[in-house]
Amino acid sequence: MPARPGAAFDAFLETDAPRAAERRDWTPADGALPALYLSHGAPPLFDEAEWMGRLFEWAQGLPRPKGILIVSAHWEAAPLMISSPAAATPLVYDFGGFPERYFKMRYETPDATAMARRVASAMPDSEPLHQHASRGLDHGAWVPLKVMYPQGDLPVLQLSIPTHDPDRLMAIGRRLRPLREEGYLVVGSGFMTHGLPFVDFHHPEKVPGWSADFDVWASEALARGDIEELARYRSQAPGMPYAHPTVDHYVPLFVTYGAASEQEQAAQTVIDGYWFGLSKRSFQLN
């Protein structure tokens, strides 16, 4: 653990974050924004300068969206739900064992009522969207977004994961596809491998075979745009079930693929590598 938790984030706020003001707003001439899947990390992301830099530059290369809709591994709730649209809704600190600083962080985004109405209108009668009265963003949303969009001046809403079924998640993503054409950023937030019970935290440089094997399998399927292979992960992916003892951090990618303009397209990997042996692979689709 660093001597001062979040010191790398403090340096980022001074050196890189001010450049976010240089971003130009999305216009219809830009066309649809990409659909993203990102490995979101946890509060210690704020101690990882290189990782933060790559997340920030990713957002820096995109037009500034009208708003962000994010599906996080950390909110599994059925029926389908959306977080509170009220401005400055308190965050969810759904973690433990970290320095006190991370429990005091804020990400006070503006009112997202209009965006919530638009998202609700995209859902069919068979998949009605329920409004949660008070739930804010959990760390699968606010941790990466504090780096990617440090000004906190964009409306942000979080969508729950109501199922692990790839087909149903793809269908939800397809309903969100028009939002990309209107200047909204659609994000699936998970972790490409997430076998926390099997990580050797005393040797963060070691990459377990189950993590490396799963990542290679996923990267090859993503490069082919082979969504059918990605959907067969339980039976086909090497490293299972160690790579995903629970699948909540993997399945957000099906919302990302559903929201893409074409279902079977090669993903553009933006971030790769490992953190404590877990794959950080993150990608975007047009």
Automatic annotation (TrEMBL):
Gene3D superfamilies: LigB-like (3.40.830.10). It comes from the Bacteria. The keyword Metal-binding applies. InterPro entries: Extradiol_dOase_DODA (IPR014436), Xdiol_dOase_suB (IPR004183). Its cofactor is Zn(2+). The keyword Oxidoreductase applies. Keywords: Dioxygenase, Metal-binding, Oxidoreductase, Zinc. Pfam families: LigB. Residues 57-264 form the Extradiol ring-cleavage dioxygenase class III enzyme subunit B domain. This is 4,5-DOPA dioxygenase extradiol. It comes from Glycomyces harbinensis.
